[in-house]
């Protein structure tokens, strides 16, 4: 398209890029989402289905090279039915929760030692108190203008359901402690950052890392729905994989684990979101308007 619309510009970029080796390293995969309803092999190309397909190779690796936890940082949360079981592998406890396999897409290939307690998937989300200094600094941070939430944090009901997997998002670099993140990033962690000792590691050992535009939602990652026009007279409905937004990201899945510098402190410390309030724009505005406190 660019070549036809602007041939001279295309030639300039072609000449510039030809100077470099753009071959991606082994284990680099494009993870993208495109709105539509998919079934069969076509569904494996998009969102969480594509992520799972690539992560399956981890099951064949030695236990010492497989992740023991997954940490996922994002800036928006979707419907609980779409994220708890399909993505995080967390069983909901509300009555209307649909029946489905518990193991989430992010946990594909994970090895959780029997002695390790707590959720294997951690939702890395800043607390309200930790985030307030970012807003106090003025420019250089995310704003809450435009009539939309910059970070749509979990409601009180969502907080109840996410108690098992919420963890603090604390900037790994102190210079970023007064900023509010807008990252969409996940990591399959084999060994977290070691704090202390004569040989301090600079980054956690990870089996894989994803970075891109996918927030934690069924709209972005995709979800299963009854197929359009499916015949349910027998009681069985055909299902389709449904994606509702355009997203793109890169999955780095090296042949063996390697250190990756993450923007948050890992292992991310768990917290109870019903006691320590997670950040959300609505909670922040309530403080400004004198309707709430920390």
Radius of gyration from the alpha-carbon trace, in angstroms: 21 Å
* Count, helices: 8
How far apart, in Å, are the first and last alpha carbons? 52 Å
Task: Name the beta content range.
Answer: 15-25%
- Tell me the overall shape: globular
Summarize the structure.
By secondary structure, the protein is an alpha+beta fold. It has helices spanning 2-5, 7-17, 47-55, 80-88, 128-136, 156-161, 218-221, 281-288, and strands at residues 28-33, 36-38, 69-73, 121-124, 166-167, 185-191, 205-212, 223-226, 239-243, 247-252, 258-259.
Account of the protein in words:
The protein has helices at residues 2-5, 7-17, 47-55, 80-88, 128-136, 156-161, 218-221, 281-288, and strands at 28-33, 36-38, 69-73, 121-124, 166-167, 185-191, 205-212, 223-226, 239-243, 247-252, 258-259. The chain is α+β, with helices and mostly antiparallel strands and 294 residues long. It is built from eight helices and eleven strands. Strands 1, 3, 4, 5, 6, 7, 10 and 11 form an eight-stranded mixed sheet that branches. 35% of the residues are buried.
């Amino acid at each position: 398209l660019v070549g036809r619309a602007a041939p001279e510009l295309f030639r300039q970029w072609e000449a510039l890029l030809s100077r470099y080796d753009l071959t991606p390293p082994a284990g680099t995969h494009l993870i993208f989402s495109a709105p539509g309803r998919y079934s069969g092999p076509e569904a494996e190309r998009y969102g969480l289905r594509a992520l799972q397909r690539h992560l399956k190779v981890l099951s064949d690796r030695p236990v010492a090279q497989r992740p023991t936890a997954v940490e996922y940082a994002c800036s928006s949360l979707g419907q609980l039915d779409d994220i708890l079981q399909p993505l995080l592998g967390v069983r909901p406890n509300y009555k209307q929760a649909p029946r489905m396999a518990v193991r989430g897409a992010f946990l594909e290939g994970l090895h959780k030692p029997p002695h390790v307690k707590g959720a294997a998937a951690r939702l890395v989300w800043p607390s309200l108190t930790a985030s307030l200094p970012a807003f106090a600094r003025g420019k250089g941070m995310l704003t809450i203008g435009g009539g939309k939430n910059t970070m749509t944090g979990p409601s009180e009901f969502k907080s109840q359901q996410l108690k098992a997997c919420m963890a603090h998002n604390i900037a790994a670099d102190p210079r970023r402690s007064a900023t509010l993140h807008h990252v969409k990033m996940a990591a399959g962690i084999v060994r977290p950052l070691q704090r202390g000792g004569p040989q301090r590691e600079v980054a956690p050992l990870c089996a894989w890392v994803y970075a891109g535009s996918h927030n934690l939602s069924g709209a972005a990652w995709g979800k299963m729905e009854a197929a359009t026009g499916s015949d349910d007279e027998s009681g069985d409905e055909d299902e389709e994989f449904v994606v509702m937004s355009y997203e793109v990201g890169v999955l780095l899945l090296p042949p063996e684990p390697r250190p990756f510098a993450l923007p948050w402190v890992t292992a991310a410390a768990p917290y109870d979101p019903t006691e320590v309030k997670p950040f959300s724009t609505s909670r922040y505005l309530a403080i400004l308007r004198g309707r709430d406190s920390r």
